[in-house]
């Protein structure tokens, strides 16, 4: 994660809000944001270096970058990440699925391996999403943070620890406008040689209908988790660790309660990370694996939800691997 910490006290000095409001409604005490000149690919490279080192790998067959805050609309950032990591001319592409990006990306990488396209994949979730958040908007500025997390996936046996799956993935595009950056895409072009007059200032930033998103998040994450547990033949009592997307502590707690997963099995670091979109879950896994809160042999349920709307879940038995975390 980038070094610059933005505390709730910092936010209170420039927004009409209170520390109590932010912490009680979201569980967030601080978040990290990139400094000027630092972008998503820079964070992705740092996470990639650490993941490759932890895995003891110097080469992979593909690099996949999940991000919704790309350095540029075109091209994708993954080829630059691959080059900067010295990985050569490997397959490299970005995947955009907002806060579900890590689960969608795991499924995509598993597919690359299953189809024989790759034997190993470096998969990174990286976000500098603070650059898409209006610093003057009290409804979004407290929530989002920047960071990156990465994993190395390789071909293996379906019954060995670390094997990922089954999956549940879903979407509901009828609610696309609940969480959106409206400007800058093909619908509201940034400029046609005429400046930015067509895009209202607020449309450069994220717009969020917080309460509706909250309700969809709890319902979809709970249903998706139930589906994947069913597919895996697990019951809630089989889940040793619940790694839910860190959107809001109340969302995570509510989903865990509905699934009957005890509080001490729920992993959370949102108090220090905020919502880091596709980077949220890998940062959580890396931090808790490095601290020992997540350990080899534990059965992990991973569930995410985000803009789109989109959601997804998977399960795995945590393998005996080294994890490196820098929070
Ligand atoms: N400080 C103080 N008051 C604030 C505030 C802030 N930072 N942000 C909003 N408010 C106010 C609102 O203006 C509203 O005031 P009103 O009742 O006078 O209109 C009031 O607080 C309640 O707003 P509401 O949006 O209904 O609050 P909430 O309890 O739903 O909490 C969120 C707001 C954003 C914390 C919550 O909706 C949420 O977490 N939603 C999901 C967001 C999310 O996870 N997004 C990413 C999904 S991956």
CATH topology tier name of the largest domain? Peroxisomal Thiolase, Chain A, domain 1
Distance between the termini: 6 Å
User: What small molecules does the structure contain?
Assistant: coenzyme A
How would a textbook summarize the main sheet?
A: 4 strands, mixed
- How many helices? 9
What's the arrangement of secondary structure elements?
Blueprint: E1 5-7, H1 8-12, H2 19-26, E2 30-32, H3 40-55, E3 62-66, H4 78-84, E4 91-95, H5 101-114, E5 120-127, E6 147-154, E7 167-171, E8 179-181, E9 206-208, H6 210-232, E10 241-244, H7 249-259, H8 270-273, H9 280-291, E11 299-306, E12 310-317
Parallel strand pairs: 3-4, 3-5, 10-11
Antiparallel strand pairs: 1-2, 5-6, 7-12, 8-9, 11-12
Coenzyme A (COA) binds near residues 143, 208, 213, 247 and 306.
Explain this structure.
This protein is an alpha/beta fold. It folds into 2 domains: 151 residues, 3-Layer(aba) Sandwich (Peroxisomal Thiolase, Chain A, domain 1); 124 residues, Peroxisomal Thiolase, Chain A, domain 1. 31% of the residues lie in helices and 19% in strands. Strands 4-3-5-6 form a 4-stranded mixed β-sheet, sandwiched between helices. It has a 4-stranded mixed β-sheet with strand order 7-12-11-10, with helices on both faces. The model has no long low-confidence stretch (mean pLDDT 95). Bound molecules: coenzyme A (COA). The site of coenzyme A (COA) has 21 residues, from helix 2, helix 6 and strand 11. Homodimer.
Q: What labels would you give this structure?
A:
327 residues; alpha/beta; Peroxisomal Thiolase, Chain A, domain 1; 2 domains; four-stranded mixed beta sheet; 9 helices; 31% helix; binds coenzyme A
């Amino acid at each position: 994660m980038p070094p610059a910490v933005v505390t709730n006290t910092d936010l209170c000095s420039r927004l009409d809000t209170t520390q109590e409001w932010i912490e009680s409604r979201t569980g967030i005490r601080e978040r990290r944001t990139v400094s000027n000149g630092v972008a998503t690919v820079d964070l992705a490279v740092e996470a990639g270096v650490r993941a490759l080192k932890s895995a003891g790998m110097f080469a992979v067959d593909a690099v996949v970058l999940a991000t919704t805050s790309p350095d540029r609309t075109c091209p994708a950032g993954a080829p630059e990440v691959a080059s900067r990591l010295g990985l050569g001319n490997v397959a490299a592409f970005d995947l955009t699925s907002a806060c579900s990006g890590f689960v969608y990306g795991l499924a995509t990488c598993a597919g690359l391996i299953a189809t024989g396209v790759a034997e190993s994949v470096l998969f990174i979730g990286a976000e500098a999403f603070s650059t898409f958040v209006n610093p003057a908007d009290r409804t979004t500025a407290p929530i989002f943070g920047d960071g990156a997390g990465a994993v190395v996936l390789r071909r293996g046996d379906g019954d060995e620890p670390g094997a990922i799956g089954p999956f549940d993935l879903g979407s509901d595009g009828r609610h696309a406008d609940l969480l959106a950056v409206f400007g800058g895409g093909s619908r509201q072009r940034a400029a046609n040689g005429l400046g930015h007059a067509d895009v209202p200032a607020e449309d450069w930033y994220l717009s969020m209908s917080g309460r509706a998103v909250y309700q969809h998040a709890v319902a979809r994450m709970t249903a998706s988790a139930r589906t994947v547990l069913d597919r895996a033949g697990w019951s809630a009592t089989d889940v040793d660790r619940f790694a839910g997307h860190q959107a809001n502590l109340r969302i995570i707690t509510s989903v865990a309660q509905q699934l009957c997963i005890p509080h001490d099995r729920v992993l959370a670091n949102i108090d220090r990370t905020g919502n880091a979109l596709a980077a949220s879950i890998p940062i959580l896994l890396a931090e808790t694996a490095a601290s020992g809160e997540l350990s080899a042999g534990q059965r992990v349920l991973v569930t995410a939800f985000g803009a789109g709307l989109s959601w997804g879940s998977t399960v795995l038995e945590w393998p005996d691997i080294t994890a490196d975390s820098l929070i």
